[in-house]
Amino acid sequence: METKHNQPESLNDMVFEGRNKDYGAYQLRRAYPKHLTQASFYAVGLFVFLFTFPALVNKVTGKHENAFPIVKPPTRGTVLTEIKLPPLAEVKQIEKPATPPPASGPTIKNVVPKVVDNAQAAEEDVPTQEQLKHATAGLTSNEGTGEPSANALPLEGGAPEGTGTEPAETGAAKPSYFISVERMPEFDGGMNALMKFVGKNLRYPPAAQKSGIEGTVVLSFVVSPTGEIGGIEVLKGLGYGTEEEVVRVIKKMPRWKPGMQNGNAVPVKFTLPIRLQMN
């Protein structure tokens, strides 16, 4: 006896073995590869048609325009316009008036007195002030044209007389203070002691503390030869009462060691920055 084994043709035959295969899911599963192949051909054909259709239309109609319009700004032609400038006015040179020569008045020899021995003294005529009113002092005497000289200096009432009691000013006035000297003024104990003094006596203004104001106040003052503080000036402030508080503390400082120049105590201007910072 021969036994025949019918091998299923596919996975679908194995799934639907012993079931009705005339219709329904079995027929759909069996026809799926065919449907997939047809759909792929249709999709590829449609894509090729849509891609080549505009080129075919342009080739048939003879138009070769771009598929997407390109907008360009309008170009203006360059027009050259000749501009006629008005003629330049002639610049006339201004002639300077000729300076007339000074009048030739009479000159009188002005003798400078010399201190010599009486035996060697020569008698020379010394002109008076009345003669010099109508003549010009010179090295020699000359009659001139008789016209008054433009260079003659009239002396009405003679030269002013001085008392001789005031000393003559020989230079510029001495400065009221120095900026830099051989030994600068110093707070007793140095800068560390100065900072401790300021930090101990300075009270942060409530307005500045409320507004969160921090920064540096720069001020200057003059240390006198005796070490006293004066001439306080605020160079940079922060407002909110900070300048007034710093000036109050500076006025409260004790005497400094004065600055020295050439062995002498002199007034010196000192600049001090104070940093205000809330804890």
Keywords summarizing the entry:
single chain, 279 residues, alpha+beta, TolA/TonB C-terminal domain, three-stranded antiparallel β-sheet, two-stranded parallel sheet, 6 helices, elongated
Describe it for me?
The chain is an alpha+beta fold and 279 residues long. Among the domains are: 9-65; 190-276, 2-Layer Sandwich (TolA/TonB C-terminal domain). The chain has six helices and seven strands. It has a three-stranded antiparallel sheet with strand order 4-3-7, covered by helices on one side. The two termini are 111 Å apart.
Please give the radius of gyration in angstroms.
58 Å
Q: Which regions are unreliable across 5 or more consecutive residues at pLDDT < 50? A: 67-73, 149-159, 167-172
Question: Which sequence of strands runs across the widest sheet?
Answer: 4-3-7
- Encode the helix/strand succession as letters: HHEHEHHEEHEEE
- Provide a count of the helices: 6
Distance between the termini: 111 Å
What would you say the CATH architecture of the domain at 190-276 is? 2-Layer Sandwich
Named CATH topology of the domain at 190-276: TolA/TonB C-terminal domain
| DSSP summary, beta strand count | 7
| Binned strand content | 5-15%
Q: What is the global morphology?
A: elongated
Offer a quick outline of the entry.
The protein has 279 residues and is α+β, with helices and mostly antiparallel strands. The protein has 6 helices and 7 strands; from the N terminus they run ααβαβααββαβββ. The longest helix is centred in the first third of the chain and has 37 residues.
List the helices and strands and how they pair.
Layout: H1 11-15, H2 25-61, E1 107-109, H3 129-132, E2 136-138, H4 190-201, H5 206-211, E3 215-223, E4 229-236, H6 242-251, E5 259-261, E6 264-266, E7 268-276
Parallel strand pairs: 1-2
Antiparallel strand pairs: 3-4, 3-7, 5-6
